[in-house]
Design goal:
Length: 869
């Protein structure tokens, strides 16, 4: 479901549906029988909430948040509009209570065991069931499972959750600490966020609104069972090759029988509905916790491959516990992709490598950094995740880094990554500040790590674990040694070691021992120290914060670029959702409220002056900002690929937004692709041609990420002026080797093009197979956009419309540089956009949106660079 232009309207609609990722719910809490020995009852209906102590109960939606409930009931203004962010901050200082009544019948009470599961409580909460305080929660990132068999009653049962203010709950720790942590993304004068295991981005960020609320953000369920219940299954992949997969199958379960007994444990592997392997063992079962391991071997397995390299084969693995008579007690089914992923991080002649090897092949990681997709997490639905992964796949990305200032994502996120072949770099949830390391805090983190390692370790997509985002770099290089005393600064290092060099790697070794762990990203490289870029992964912010030109990315190349980025405004139809036309100015209060990077708008203007003619109209400024972001970032992505195998990854910052805002994203809050996403798609094609002017030559490279060679190819090099006149053309024969970058041809800059030709023409580079089919085409411009003599031109278009689809055919006599086609529907999908329409070229564009209706007049707008002069 696409986000609507009014958050308020969207939340009103959301009252009609459940936020859960579980099965569809009826009006009452439902019971789902898993087998005769187990039954699950969902507890996500009939909730109400009140500010604590006021007894003013109103309908609540669960899963949800306090902000979503207040907005839905018109008790808060739309937080995204104007400067309304300031009007909602009172919510974080209050305590809130949620309650429901559910029924339990005699048949359910006849089960010998009953556990209540809280998938996610945000964050400080006391939970009461029928008068008993069954839980005190202090961590948003873990599931709580509480035995309640002796507390349940026949008939009505009352469940109350009292949430405490996340600010006030940590205030005493802040006050007694004696100094304020450098958590500058916590947009409050008292940085309490570091004491709380809650999504850090809720407190604000340099792209984010502050909404530090509370709520039941993941489902609640009640499970009835007899004899035993499976707690965890781990299919550990000991050795994987195309010849043989050696697996260690581990099950952990809890028996509530008081006496010891015997049971049968089955591990059943199936592919496409056909059983390919079964391990069946009779085991001794003791009262309480049980752990059992057995080995399996699958010959000639079908391997899971990342996107672009083959199929994403997933085996179904069903784990069963049966009693000695064969009666099913409990079962668990997971999808497992058999693959061998390694991170090669070794010292070499250039420093220290950093790359992923998948099934024996070095992989160039093409991807993006991901932040949570909404400030109100339950707003993002299953269909939104599906669409997002469609967008990831469409842009040829093969890796997503889940950044450490957000959340450990929904199970469905990782299931989609498995299905689509997207590798996941998984951060633990720590970012950009020092953290405490007292025993109580370490204990919370240990629980969090164990829970999420166990929850995620079976997913084929999980490629590595990382302790945090930028913290060791910050302690060393962000000036904290001057801001704090030597004693405090030294304590930051010691606390860091306890958390990220001791506790977390120990937990990874214990619960996911075959995965690579990196203590921080970056672990040693620093963008202000160019010599360090040869060592491991890097976050390069010389472009943007350092105000260095995009061309610096040609020479400041790391072994693996795990972050780099540039900001842009969203397009005008997004800006119109949070502002009025009177606000359309860079320095208006509303625009400043939606620009969280302190010097962001001035930096955008500075870069625009470097590369473009700065327009007077705000709308044109927004458009040029979009194309500048896309073109500049593409330059960096191609530089990284061109320098493989020295550089083996390009993860741009950032994929997405969590509210409508000026940010580094390639997809805005409503799902509209910015120019950056289209340019990432082009830069990350499996095989590309890339040209760069360096040392008096125009060097032309072919770059391949494919695992096969391509032979008997031709490269057509043609200079064309902006009116369509063909100036010169040559064709060379070439081959493209598998998985490498290679220089295939060079042109002399001086002799190839005159000064006039440099300003009035471009070079078309087309790589074709032996049948003349184009494998890749790219355009090379000699000069910056502001120095090109772009001609005026008219765009001729014809439009055909049917339900859900609009077909547009466009033509222009002269070059149309950076054409942007706008449609007034949020989240509409274009087959192409933000492209150069060549002189005399006819191009067809397909636009898809559920809001397009046959017979309607579609209001399309065409904008291109020459229009802004």
């Amino acid at each position: 479901m696409l986000r609507l232009t009014s958050l308020l309207y969207a939340l009103v609609l959301s009252a009609l549906v459940s936020f859960s990722f579980a099965a569809k719910k009826n009006e009452t809490n439902t019971s789902i029988p898993d087998n005769t020995n187990k039954l699950t009852k969902e507890l996500n209906s009939n909730w109400s909430f009140s500010e604590s102590g006021k007894n003013d109960w109103k309908e609540a939606i669960v899963p949800g948040t306090i902000h979503s409930d207040l907005i839905r009931l018109n008790l808060l203004p739309d937080p995204f509009f104007g400067t309304n962010e300031t009007k909602i901050q009172w919510v974080e200082d209050k305590d809130w209570a949620y309650k429901t009544v559910f029924t339990v019948d005699e048949s359910q009470l006849s089960y010998k065991g009953a556990n209540i599961n809280f998938k996610g409580l945000d964050t400080y909460a006391d939970v009461y069931l029928n008068g008993s305080n069954i839980l005190s929660s202090k961590n948003m990132f873990i599931e709580y499972e509480i035995p309640v068999k002796d507390i349940l009653r026949k008939g009505n049962n009352i469940l109350v959750i009292k949430f405490h203010s996340p600010i006030n709950s940590a205030l005493e720790q802040w006050e007694s600490n004696g100094w304020d942590y450098p958590a500058d993304n916590d947009h409050h004068d008292k940085h309490t966020s570091i004491f709380t295991r809650k999504a850090p981005y809720h407190y604000g960020w340099d792209w984010g609104i502050r909404m530090a609320g509370v709520g039941i953000w993941r489902p609640i369920s009640l499970t009835f069972f007899n004899q035993a219940k499976i707690n965890d299954v781990f299919i550990r992949q000991k050795s994987i090759s195309s010849e043989k997969a050696v697996l260690s199958n581990e099950i952990e379960f809890n028996s509530i029988k008081k006496e010891n007994s015997k049971a049968i444990v089955n591990f059943i592997f199936s592919l496409n509905g056909k059983e390919v392997k079964k391990e069946s063992k009779t085991i001794d079962v003791q009262a309480g916790k049980n752990h059992f391991v057995c080995q399996s071997t699958i010959n000639n397995p079908e391997l899971w491959m990342p996107l672009g390299w083959g199929k994403q084969t997933l085996y179904d693995v069903t784990t069963e516990i049966r009693d000695i008579n064969g009666i099913l007690i409990d079962s668990n089914t997971k999808k497992i992709g058999l693959r061998n992923i390694k991170v090669i991080n070794q010292e070499d002649k250039d420093g220290k490598s950093f790359y992923f090897e998948v099934n024996g092949n070095p992989l160039f990681a093409k991807g993006a950094n991901y932040i949570p997709s909404d400030i109100i997490l339950t707003n993002f639905k299953k269909e939104d995740y599906k669409r997002m992964f469609d967008d990831i796949k469409a842009a040829n990305l093969n890796m997503i880094r889940i950044w450490g200032g957000g959340i450990y994502e929904e199970e469905y996120f990782y299931e989609l990554a498995d299905e689509y072949g997207i590798l996941i770099w998984q951060d633990f949830m720590f970012a950009c500040t020092a953290y405490p390391a007292d025993n109580a805090f370490l204990d919370l983190v240990a629980q969090e790590a164990e829970y999420n390692l166990k929850r995620l370790r079976n997913h084929a997509c999980i490629a590595m674990w990382c302790g945090n985002n930028e913290i060791i770099e910050a302690i060393k290089y962000w000036g904290w040694d001057k801001k704090y005393s030597k004693e405090i600064h030294s304590s930051m290092f010691s606390s860091y070691d306890k958390l990220f060099r001791n506790l977390l790697p120990e937990k990874v070794k214990e619960f996911d021992p075959d995965k690579f762990y990196l203590h921080s990203s970056p672990d040693s490289a620093n963008w202000g120290r160019p010599a360090s870029l040869g060592w491991g992964d890097a976050h390069y912010w010389g472009v943007w914060y350092g105000v260095q030109p995009f061309e610096i990315l040609d020479s400041r190349v790391p072994r693996f670029m795990s972050e780099f980025g540039f900001q842009s405004f969203p397009e005008m139809k997004v800006i119109s959702t949070f502002s009025n036309p009177s606000d359309y100015a860079l320095e208006s209060e509303v625009m400043k409220a939606h620009q969280k990077s302190s010097t962001g708008n001035s930096i955008i203007k500075t870069y625009m002056e470097m590369y473009y003619k700065v327009p007077e109209k705000f709308e044109d400024f927004v458009y040029i900002n979009l194309i500048m972001q896309g073109n500049g970032m593409r330059h960096g992505m191609e530089a990284h690929r061109r320098n493989k195998p020295f550089c083996m990854g390009s993860l741009y910052w950032q994929l997405n937004d969590n509210w409508p805002v000026v940010s580094w994203s390639s997809i805005d809050y409503f799902g509209n692709w910015k120019a950056l996403h289209y340019q990432a798609k082009r830069a990350f094609e499996p095989v590309i041609v890339n040209a760069i002017e360096e040392n008096g030559k125009i060097n032309i490279y072919t770059i391949s990420d494919e695992l096969i060679d391509r032979g008997n190819l031709s490269l057509e090099i043609e200079m064309i002026d902006f009116t369509g006149k063909k100036i010169k053309k040559q064709t060379i024969k070439t081959n493209v080797k598998a998985n490498i970058s290679q220089l295939v041809y060079s042109l002399d800059s001086v002799s190839y093009a005159t000064k006039e030709e440099r300003k009035n023409s471009f070079v078309s580079l087309s790589l074709k197979d032996n049948k003349g089919k184009t494998i890749n085409n790219t355009l090379f411009y000699f000069e910056k956009p502001k120095d090109l003599n772009l001609p005026k031109t008219d765009i001729h278009s014809s439009i055909s419309v049917k339900d859900g689809v609009c077909q547009v055919e466009i033509y222009s006599k002269n070059l149309v540089k950076d054409l942007f086609i706008e449609i007034p529907f949020q989240g509409a999908h274009f087959s192409d956009n933000f492209f150069d329409l060549l002189p005399g070229e006819k191009k067809k564009i397909t636009i898809s949106s559920s809001e397009i209706k046959k017979g309607d007049k579609i209001d399309l707008k065409f904008t291109h660079l020459r229009d802004t002069y």
